[in-house]
Amino acid sequence: MTASRSVLITGGNRGIGAAIAAAFVANGDKVAVTHRGASDLPDGVLGVQADVTDPESLDRAFTEVEAAHGPVEVLIANAGITNDQLLLRMSEKDFTDVIDVNLTGVFRSVKRAIKGMIRAKKGRIVLVSSVSGIYGAAGQVNYSASKAGLIGIARSLTRELASRGITTNVIMPGVVLTEMFDAVSDEVKAKYLADIPAGRFADATEIANVVRWLSSDEAAYISGALIPVDGGASMGH
């Protein structure tokens, strides 16, 4: 078994983020998650309050994690929001708010994390994107753009940092059974399901297990990759 690592997951208090946190806890790692004032956190994790749109709050969160667990060795950039509107109805604020969290927030988180990774000459970064970033979705110009942008971040970082033992990869979940998805109508669920060759939606643990593997020594020679976990929905894209 590998030595326990310092793992930080942004937006790790619920949904996919909480499942990822649980997977790393089960792996024996020291796990911290950022949240924006949540009262319920996954078992066995350190919760640090942070807003990825605020560089100072992120810096404080990283400093707290470093004091408790040591420099962050694995960063999972998972924090994200949606604000779906057809483009004709989408305000500039609707667009920029989503970009600020989902794309610029990742820039801020990664920039802070790589300082320690460069010193240590090792690190794992996984960016949680979505098949919407390559597939597109009506009403998600803002969200799809933000998730597509993560591909450029990962591939540029790979060219900058892979020689230093730091990998950066993108995971692209399809439709995942979370509390957020519970609110979707049965009609929309049926439409989504018809496009998935596997004939079912993903469980959050299935996303978490792939993230954990991408962060392991077994995946040390993988960087700049896009890994879809979507039951075959985005084949050919």
What does this structure look like?
This protein is α/β, with parallel strands linked by helices. It has a single domain, classed as NAD(P)-binding Rossmann-like Domain (Rossmann fold, 3-Layer(aba) Sandwich). Helix content is 44%, strand content 17%. The chain has 8 helices and 9 strands. The chain has helices spanning 15-26, 55-69, 92-120, 132-135, 141-161, 179-182, 186-194, 204-214; strands at 6-9, 30-35, 46-49, 74-77, 123-128, 166-173, 176-177, 202-203, 226-229. The strands form 2 sheets. Strands 3-2-1-4-5-6-9 form a 7-stranded parallel β-sheet, sandwiched between helices. It has a two-stranded parallel ribbon with strand order 7-8. Helix 1 (15-26) crosses helix 8 (204-214) and helix 3 (92-120) packs parallel to helix 5. It is globular, with a radius of gyration of 17 Å.
Give a quick set of tags describing it.
single chain, 237 residues, alpha/beta, Rossmann fold, two-stranded parallel ribbon, 9 strands, 44% helix
Order of H and E elements: EHEEHEHEHHEEHHEHE
Strand percentage, roughly?
15-25%
CATH class: Alpha Beta
What is the CATH topology descriptor? Rossmann fold
Question: Residue ranges: pLDDT <50 for 5 or more in a row?
Answer: none
Largest sheet entry: 7 strands, parallel
| Oligomeric grouping of the chains | single chain
* First-residue to last-residue Cα separation: 36 Å
Structural class: alpha/beta
What radius of gyration results from the CA coordinates?
17 Å
CATH second-level architecture: 3-Layer(aba) Sandwich
